[in-house]
Amino acid sequence: MSTTPERWDLRLYTAGQSPKSLAALANLKRICDEHLAGRYSIEVVDLMKNPRLAKDDEIVAIPTLVRKLPAPLRKIIGDLSNEERALVGLQLRPHNTGAGK
Amino acid sequence: MMREPALPKLKRTARNGERELPKARTGVEGFDQVTGGGLPKGRPTLVCGGPGCGKTLFAMEFLVRGAMQFGEPGAFITFEETGEELAQNVRSLGFDLDGLVKDGKIAVDHIHIEPSEIQETGEYDLEGLFLRLSVAIDSVGAKRIVLDTIESLFGGFENQAILRSELRRLFRWLKERGVTAVITGERGEGSLTRQGLEEYVSDCVILLDHRVTEQSSTRRLRVVKYRGSVHGTNEYPFLIDEKGFSVLPVSGLGLDHPVSSERVPSGVPQLDEMLGGEGYFRGSSILVSGTAGTGKTSLAAHFAHQTCRRGERCLYLAFEESPAQLMRNMGTIGLDLAPHVKKGMLRIHASRPTLYGLEMHLVQVHKMVSEFEPRAVIVDPISNFVSTGTSRDAQAMLLRLVDFLKERQITAFFTHLTSGGTALEATEVGISSIIDTWLLVRDIEVGQERRRGLYILKSRGMKHSNQVREFRITANGVRLDPVKRGKGRAR
Question: Could you give the ipTM of this predicted complex?
Answer without folding.
Answer: 0.87
